Amino acid sequence: FRLALIQLHVSAVKSDNLQRACGLVREASAKGAKVVALPECFNSPYGTQYFKEYAEKVPGESTQKLSEVARECSIYLIGGRSIPEEDGGKLYNTCTVFGPDGAMLAKHRKVHLFDINIPGKIQFKESETLSPGNSFSMFDTPYCKVGLGICYDIRFAEMAQVYGQKGCQLLVYPGAFNLTTGPAHWELLQRGRAVDNQVYVATVSPARDEKASYVAWGHSTVVNPWGEVIAKAGAEETVIYTDIDLNKLAEIRQQIPILSQKRCDLYGIEMKK
């Protein structure tokens, strides 16, 4: 099946972001994409100072638009971090997924909050405004099961291993790595998660805006289960496409059968919730 990643240029105007995102979703569908993903924070600037101002309920304005365009195009739409979600007085970094009938299939709240301090380069603390999610998020398609994470979640190998154990063959991480961590770890982490679990891994970033308070790395990417980069964007706004070949995935797992060779008598990863 064809996967499309929309590397969107995000402005400070929510309505403009939504309109442009939906237009690019329609374009991707017209080019044969069956699963389409938007980047983390596609409808608002990324930064703790923006989260409360742009927050919405789920369902709400942004998710309603995503539901409508998914139904219109008859696709599976992964809504990036569609919005900062407000629920019960708390804010979450939330990704919603909609099916071809417009129904919401999954809602992933970012499990691992991005609290880092690299002296002289970048300091960021999502936990100043956001609360963490407490669950794994998977959804079924006629093609394969898909597991979701958001940005910093990709650094935690255990999460990807659980998705692999549960039968996911594609992991999608909307993310917004920065100009420090992006060149160092963005592709490395994707290739690691793909090879470790013999799955496809897709990451979808906002386009780079040098004038933004937080500058995203860009370079949305798809990696196959052999660890090969099979599609990669630059820094600008674009849509990239790739065909997900599940026969190739099956061949790789047959050739190097690590899933059946794990020593579960010596170690293990478990999903607690």
Largest sheet: 7 strands, mixed
Rg over CA atoms, rounded to whole Å, is 17 Å
The CATH topology is given as Nitrilase/N-carbamoyl-D-aminoacid amidohydrolase
Give, in order, the helices and strands.
EHEHHEEEEEEEEHEHEEEEHH
Q: Tally the structural domains.
A: 1
Instruction: State the fourth-level CATH superfamily.
Output: Carbon-nitrogen hydrolase
Proportion of helical residues: 25-40%
Tell me the β content.
Answer: 25-35%
Blueprint (SSEs and pairs):
Elements: E1 2-7, H1 14-30, E2 35-37, H2 48-54, H3 61-73, E3 76-78, E4 83-87, E5 90-98, E6 104-109, E7 115-118, E8 122-125, E9 137-140, E10 145-148, H4 157-165, E11 168-174, H5 181-197, E12 200-204, E13 221-223, E14 229-232, E15 238-243, H6 246-255, H7 258-261
Parallel strand pairs: 1-2, 2-3, 10-11, 11-12
Antiparallel strand pairs: 1-15, 3-5, 4-5, 5-6, 7-8, 9-10, 12-13, 13-14
Could you walk me through the main structural features you see in this protein, from its secondary elements to its overall organization?
The protein has 273 residues and is α/β, with parallel strands linked by helices. It has a single domain, classed as 4-Layer Sandwich (Nitrilase/N-carbamoyl-D-aminoacid amidohydrolase). The protein is 28% helix and 27% strand. The chain is built from 7 helices and 15 strands. Strands 1, 2, 3, 4, 5, 6 and 15 form a 7-stranded mixed beta sheet that branches. A 6-stranded mixed beta sheet has the order 9-10-11-12-13-14, covered by helices on one side. A two-stranded antiparallel sheet has the order 7-8. The longest helix is centred in the N-terminal third of the chain and has 17 residues. It starts with a strand and ends in a 12-residue tail after the last helix. The mean pLDDT is 95.
